[in-house]
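@channel anyone free to eyeball this complex?
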Amino acid sequence: MAEASYPEDLKYHAEHDWARIDGEEATFGITWYAQDALGEVVFFDPPEVGAQVTKDQSYAEVESVKAVSDVFAPLSGEIVAVNEDLGDSPERINEDPYGEGWLVRVRLSEPSEVDSLLDAGAYEQLLESSG
Amino acid sequence: MSRYTGVTDRDLREMLDAIGVDSVDDLFAEIPDGVRLQRELDLPGGRAEQDVFEHLAALAARNRHCDEEISFLGAGMYDHYVPALVDTLLQRSEFLTPYTPYQPEVSQGGLQVMFEFQTAISELTGLPVSNASVYEGPSAVAAAGYLAKLETRRSRLVASRGVHPHSRGALRTHAAGYGMEVVEVPLTTEGATDVAALAAAVDDDTAAVFVQQPNFLGTVEDLGELTEVGKRTGAVAVCAADPLPLGILKPPGDLGADICVGEGQTLGNRLDFGGPSFGFFAAGERFLRKLPGRIAGETRDADGKRGFVLTLQTREQHIRREKATHNICTSQALNALAGVVYLSWLGRRGLVELAELMLRRTHYAREALALEPINPGAVVREFAVRVPDLDALFERARAEGINPGYRLGRDYSEYEDGLLVAITERRTRAHIDRLAAVAAAVGETVAA
Amino acid sequence: MTSAALDPRAGEETLTIFERSREGRRAFTAPDCDVPELPVEELLPKSAVRERPAELPEVSEPELVRHYTTLSSKNFHLDEGFYPLGSCTMKHNPKLHERVAALPGHARLHPLQDPEYAQGALELMWRLQGALAEVAGLPHVSLQPSAGSHGELAGLLLTRAFHEANGDPRTKVLTPDTAHGTNPATVTMAGYQVVKVGTAADGGVDLDDLRAKADADVACLMLTNPNTLGLFDRNIEEIERIVHDAGATLYYDGANLNAVMGVARPGDMGFDIVHFNLHKTFTQPHGGGGPGAGPIAVSDRIEPFLPAPQVVRRPGRNGSAPRFDLDFDRPRSIGRLRGFQGNFGVFVRTYAYIRSLGGDGLKEASEVAVLNANYVKALLAEEGIAEYLPIAFDRICMHEFVVSGRGAKARLGIKTLDIAKRMLDHRVHPPTVYFPLLVEEALMIEPTETETKERLDHFAAVVRAILQEAREDPEIAKGAPYTTPVRRLDEAGAAKRPVVRWRPND
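replying in thread with the prediction:
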């Protein structure tokens, strides 16, 4: 995805991860800023379905040729699905970070945690202020 | 001005001017007086090239090397014939003087050599994935232990006493950092790994099992049986292998080894009093992203041309840092070049012919020596025998310009009277007959 | 049409040695079999015998030589041009060294030869140990480690043994955030936890941060001085106090030793353990990625734990000459790190270097290394360069310095990577790029002492030319290199779908 974009309907975490809330579940991924900083993604090793993720903690890594980045959980819960397509096509994370580049889907354990996340505007401000 | 620098008086003036200081000493002003060396280094003064040559030549002359005696010394490094073309190629500046290939566009030679080396090692070991070298054999064994730790997160390593004493030693030393314990499994009275003892030693907390092929005594082990036992509880089966016998021995990858490592000195490298050589490291596909060291991968350039790059660098220390799969940076690229050139020189049939020649001569030597074998079973390039009076044998052999082999008692208290005899393609029948004659003469003397 | 378009070889496919193979060709002729040619199946159990040979190539000697010679011509190398890789010390490899290394008394000596018949080799190692001890300012040396990383690991294993012997096991090791990646990787392999120490505004260690983190659970601080920014840490005496007061050991990463030989010694700075990179400071050729060696020097209190065997000199019997030996009787040793006694072939070359230069020459090497680096730094500070590649820390540097490509990125739209790739077209090897991580778009430049002023002037001219060209047309650098054996390579593809060996039917 060539141009920076931060969809309004998503929630954002300061470590450059997004969450799309869907009732009791949520989908996670990394933001445009994160994939741009990494460069072309070459490898994503997904966690196991059934594993627990904890808000603010790393649950996986995304690799480019020259860098590795921790992926942080915006919210806590149990993994119910992982994006298997990324095994063959990790570049989807770059091309469509909010759509086909989704990483995991989680059943939320603490829905109230959503309140601590940033909306698109606040996240964009965060990016601007850190230069 | 030394012969390697070139700062003339004029250069110095211009450079100091450009920098904006009065003297070279000013450039060291940041170094506190308390740590400045206030005297000259206490070392002999520099010498002309020819003086240095004479000095080094005089030191070299005080070593008895393999062209000055008929040597049956092996025990991990062997006197093989290295063809002249290896020297020719290794002396090329283009191979000798570049750095690690971080700029692949100007390093295609080195990168393709790595790729070809990886292919050759994969073929020898029967495992699909190889790296571009580690330091040497025992370090490769230690590295396999680390990989097993990363893979299984268990804390025990089980090693047969058939594994080279230096490899077991290096494994122990490194395991102190891994937080792992190393347990040893004895050999049978026939000089092979005791399978029952191995089975008893392996438990749910065993990360890896180590065996060697042929083992240190030269025994051809039943690898299939050993790896099967080793892997029962999910441990990683590591086989340390001597590469030349793999010309006729079934590759460890075909016999259940998950990882095959070994010492590469015999592949085109010098003895050099123990180094530098290289270690090879091959493994099953599942270990690819945890492999230590450099890996060259094939790709295309912007014009679609075939090329090679260092790949999967996110495993390595310069990117992954504290989470790297190993800390290795400089490895043994030049020695690995010698290895792949040598293997290409031998070629598909040549490696088999060489290994068969060694096998036949080894068999002949064991029969000719007529000493009590420690490992009577199949051997392929080295064997162990009991010698009633080792000192007498060495004294007599030395007097005839022969080095009879390695005293096993140095590493195995169970074989105090043991002698390890190594055979290479350089040990002719005539050489062997001479050793046999010495052994017979000494045997006679002792008996009388 | 351009000359490149007229190149009839432009479409030639690169072949591996395997693809040059033709059944029946051979480069090797086996010696005659002078013993009974018993069948293999009589001598080996069937289960142990290979069913089909390893698929090694079948080539003649001329094809073999031509293949690898052609490959070699695709490598840029130190004997052809400037190689300013920071922290690599790409100094000239003296040609004498290959001659002495090839002497049969060295090259054909078996590692397990009886010490009585290896006195020349053992004496060489003993003398090398002494020379390294003098350079380091620490009396006890082990030549065993195979490379710098291996020396680092040895240092931490020694630290571990030291603390355990004191009944005081610790769990953490401190490294500056500018540390070379081998440092933290080694910390993990040695079973410790990495704790990063920050860098102060002047480029040295942040003393407040160090004080806060140097507690009783810290086993060691790993440091290089000068550091990877090429800056000498002026506070080294205070750092030493802090670390030793906390009961930790102080480890010196010798990668940057070329800056201070004969000028300042790590032992005098208070370091307990030092490693040397013989393939950096002491001219062992890099070989495209090794071999090297990483010997260590340690203080008295660390000495008991040194790896075994140690090379020692024993007094001669009855007034005869001293004898050199391998000492295995070291009850508190951490054990051996590798096979045999180390990379002896490397010791021969580096010993020859030290004897060639002498104490004076080693000091001169460091002085000129520092002079050359400061001169290049001054050239790059000129207008036309400095605004694009601002110096990261505006201080006198040691043997190397770091500039940031952020100016070029902002003003010209080209990155450090692009500048590096365009340098290749000028037949100059780029500096180290994107390290240390602390500096944005870093270029770490280490010219070494063996470059003449003209070479340094040329390098600055190349940098100027690339920036000038980018002002006019940044796309050129972005598409560079153009004149190398291959253009920019698809590294992402190589990582996504790794192909790490040739396969038949490929």
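from a first look: The beta strands of chain A are 11-13, 17-22, 25-30, 41-44, 52-53, 58-64, 68-72, 77-82, 104-108.
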